[in-house]
Design a protein that fits this description.
The protein is of the alpha/beta class. It has 7 helices and 7 strands. The radius of gyration is 16 Å and the shape is globular. The structure holds uracil.
Length: 208
Amino acid sequence: MSEPSGDCPLCPRLAAFRGEWRGREPGWHNAPVPSFGSADARLLIVGLAPGLRGANATGRPFTGDFAGDLLYRTLIDFGFASGEYRAAPDDGLRLQDCRITNAVRCVPPQNKPEPAEITQCRPFLEAVIAGMPRLSIILVLGQIAHQSTVRALGEKASRLPFRHAGEVQLGRVTLVSSYHCSRYNTNTGVLTEAMFRDVFARIRSLVA
Ligand code: URA
């Protein structure tokens, strides 16, 4: 099963946090955020986890999150999305040959999932990967997504440390790693827009 149920009980801390926000914001999604995009895509992007007032509220990965502004703009520029991104799930934006998911599907307190939660959620990532017959590139955003995806692909994370713009072939998949396009990383210059675009230029050349 590649998508957790709306009331997934596997991580008690995350289920309790979701429950708390269902009470506070009943109009929000407040549930595991499903993957976005077709299973026929060749590119899969793996983020960390939904942001509280972004993907957790809207129900679409990165949608309404600060990180989504840069991510969706770049996807449109490189032909991996079409339409207009207006930070809402009904904005009509369509992914092209691309799918987006998260290493952890539920919003974690303080944006920090615990190691046990990352492990608990990994079978969903494994199922997403297994259910994409044409998959050839996985772009991981940040170290946690990198480690969880390396493990989902059956490798030891210690053997393949995270490196920005790193690239490794694992079976049928080329794993490309980038610093996460978070507000913190872009505000501090850890990740510039030019660095992020370079990663996408490389991916575009790989799936041309
Ligand atoms: N929103 C997401 O859906 N994932 C992230 O990693 C960050 C923001």
